[in-house]
Specification:
The protein starts with a helix and ends with a helix. It has a single domain, classed as Farnesyl Diphosphate Synthase (Orthogonal Bundle), CATH 1.10.600. α3 packs antiparallel against α15 and α4 packs antiparallel against α6. It has a two-stranded antiparallel ribbon. The chain is 72% helix and 1% strand. The longest helix is centred in the C-terminal third of the chain and has 28 residues. 42% of the residues are buried. A hairpin with a 2-residue loop joins β1 and β2. Bound molecules: geranylgeranyl diphosphate. Geranylgeranyl diphosphate binds next to α4, α9, α10 and α11. Geranylgeranyl diphosphate (GRG) binds next to α4, α9, α10 and α11.
Length: 300
């Protein structure tokens, strides 16, 4: 299936919405913190796809929620994502010079500033989760659940644990179980939490939550497999970074373990599974359905 121009129009309008909200919700300070907020904005505004905040809004839409009041939550998750990219690029981790076609944060600024920009983005995310607008709009018990969901997905039960496992696996062969652990924690956990968080705040019932959780895990795993495929055969100009870096760093990837065709086949199966998870929803989940195709077909 090919995605319609209407999907891309909607994607663009939601990306614009998130970009505007991020400008507004992440302050630009003067004085000694000016350099810090400059570095934060440099990475935040470097052309990301905004997949996770858009999933927050689309998850809410699927359960009939109005997403206008969810922007602090959507921005919080993008801040966490951006912090992870800044730290991932550091010399102590992946040591990358380019991201999204631009010098990475530590190259554009310096290592200490990049570490602090990441720290401040992560901390600011939790300030946004405690945002007055969320407090005014949603019951406290739902906000607490979202807080648990996101801190688990981002921290030692999720992304940070996945990053540790990824670094420990570098340079040696990994088992299918290890690769699954890395993908599940490093990438899929935050994607799944994004889909669920907006829906939980908007009052999803347990059945809807289960369906969205399943959808989130599946597109999260598919996203990482496609990421691995793009690193092998993507277009450098579109990606804004050299391809082949996973091979060079002897990274644990899906194609390395199962071959390119095996990786493509698994990504398609995950897409199918994600669509099946949404069966209980009607047209209100159509954007989520399109996003699943987008995750599979993306070139960036
Ligand atoms: C440093 C704690 C810590 C974690 C880093 C996210 C991550 C864990 C590492 C990034 C390396 C990487 C390629 C991960 C795979 C999937 C991924 C998160 C890709 C980048 O996400 P996109 O494509 O980025 O959504 P944009 O640029 O669109 O925001």
């Amino acid at each position: 299936m090919s995605l319609s121009p209407r999907f891309f129009e909607r994607l663009k309008s939601w990306q614009d919405l998130v970009n505007g909200a991020l400008e507004h919700m992440v302050p630009r300070l003067s004085g000694p913190a000016a350099r810090l907020t400059e570095a934060m904005h440099y990475s935040l505004m470097a052309g990301g796809k905004r997949l996770r905040p858009i999933l927050v809004l689309a998850g809410a839409e699927a359960v009939g929620g109005s997403f206008q009041r969810l922007l602090p939550l959507a921005c919080a998750i993008e801040c966490i994502h951006t912090y992870s990219l800044i730290h991932d690029d550091l010399p102590a981790m992946d040591d990358d010079d380019l991201r999204r076609g631009k010098p990475t944060c530590h190259k554009a600024f310096d290592e200490a500033t990049a570490i602090l920009a990441g720290d401040a983005l992560l901390t600011h995310a939790f300030r946004l989760l405690a945002h007055e607008d969320l407090e005014a709009a949603f019951p406290a018990d739902r906000l607490f659940r979202v807080l648990r969901l996101i801190s688990e997905a981002a921290g030692l039960y999720g992304m940070v644990a996945g990053q540790m496992a990824d670094l420990l696996a570098e340079g040696r062969p990994v088992s299918p179980e290890e690769l699954y652990f890395i993908h599940h924690h490093k990438t899929a956990a935050l994607i799944r939490a994004s889909v669920l968080a907006g829906a939980v705040l908007c009052g999803a019932d347990p059945e809807e939550e289960r369906a969205l959780s399943d959808y989130g895990w599946k597109i999260g795993h598919a996203f990482q497999i496609v990421d691995d495929i793009l690193d092998l055969e993507g277009d450098e100009e579109t990606l804004g970074k050299p391809v082949g870096s996973d091979l060079e760093k002897k990274k644990a990837t899906y194609p390395a373990l199962y071959g390119l065709e095996g990786a493509r086949k698994e990504a398609r199966a995950l897409l199918q599974g994600a669509l099946e998870s949404l069966e209980l929803f009607g047209p209100e989940a159509d954007f989520l359905r399109d996003i699943a195709y987008y995750v599979l077909e993306r070139k960036l």
